[in-house]
Amino acid sequence: MQTVTHSSVLAQFGYALSDPTRARILLALRDAAAYPSDLAELIGVSRQSLSNHLACLRGCGLVVAVPEGRRMRYELADPRLGDALSNLLGVVLAADPAHCADSAGTGCC
């Protein structure tokens, strides 16, 4: 049975994935926990931009900050998110890429 809560959670997840930088952060954290400076370098964004995206992902409940001395290490909030991201990526890659790549801007994506 689907509830409003379930649809809200999925909408938050979709919002988090709707931004390419946030998607790249989640995919990087799927592989391993990381420090913000390392993530910023890996993804190619400023630390300020990364900080804003991490705040969004924390607000959505998708990542957590783990204190390590004076530093914070970020990881997925639940290990099952890594599996979910891998499964979702597999489904998206199996879909018709031409559907969402509408150059006229009339596609779904």
TrEMBL record:
- Supply the SMART domains for this chain: HTH_ARSR
Q: Which UniProt keywords apply?
A: DNA-binding
InterPro entries, A to Z: ArsR-like_HTH, HTH_ArsR_DNA-bd_dom, HTH_Metal-responsive_Reg, WH-like_DNA-bd_sf, WH_DNA-bd_sf
Q: What molecular function terms (GO) are annotated for this protein?
A: DNA binding
Q: Which Gene3D superfamilies match?
A: Winged helix-like DNA-binding domain superfamily/Winged helix DNA-binding domain
Per the database record, which ranges form the HTH arsR-type domain? Answer: 1-96
Does this entry carry the keyword DNA-binding?
yes
Reading the lineage from the top rank, the first entry is Bacteria
Q: Where are the transmembrane segments?
A: none
One Pfam family, short name: HTH_5
Q: What is this protein called?
A: DNA-binding transcriptional ArsR family regulator
Q: Which organism is it from?
A: Paeniglutamicibacter sulfureus
